[in-house]
Structure prediction request, 226 residues.
Amino acid sequence: EVQLVQSGAEVKKPGESLKISCKGSGYSFTSYWIGWVRQMPGKGLEWMGIIYPGDSDTRYSPSFQGQVTISADKSISTAYLQWSSLKASDTAMYYCARLAAQIAFDIWGQGTMVTVSS
Amino acid sequence: EIVLTQSPATLSLSPGERATLSCRASQSVSSYLAWYQQKPGQAPRLLIYDASNRATGIPARFSGSGSGTDFTLTISSLEPEDFAVYYCQQRSNWLLFTFGPGTKVDIK
Prediction:
């Protein structure tokens, strides 16, 4: 079965760092781009960025460039999204998703809820 | 950055009725347009890719059309499980993506 499994929910304080993960299985992880999508509480979907695990080519939305870092470790079929200094406004559900046919995200992780509160 | 606009924001319909959702791009995206369904507490599900191709396992009552800047998602006869939020998404030439703000289809 093709799936993406994300790491569990996180509760952090403002200023703390965080790295969440997304592990792929059931397909060739290095052959598909993996994207990250933010969904703030009660709001819509926002595309953050995308990485090609085969060579770590990465693209960012202008809205998220410099705010987060996307990386991947192809040896363990895992992509990451990280923050160096969290803000309360980073509170959201974060999804990873596999890009198919270079157009659409066909497989989604279950989401990782990140809560940032003092 | 290409901006997507969806209309209406909310569509109130009864089961069995036809739903027509619109997505407009601020500039041409060719056919690089996808549609997703999201239910509360769930991850989005891909319905349509490349403007008009149904994803694997998606019922035939879902169809997509359009190219360039104007796109439509049609649900021919609403089933109870179709009441959800629908998002369009585009891909630019530089492998940058944006989502529309969504259309909520709720029960009248």
About this structure: Chain B has a mean pLDDT of 97.
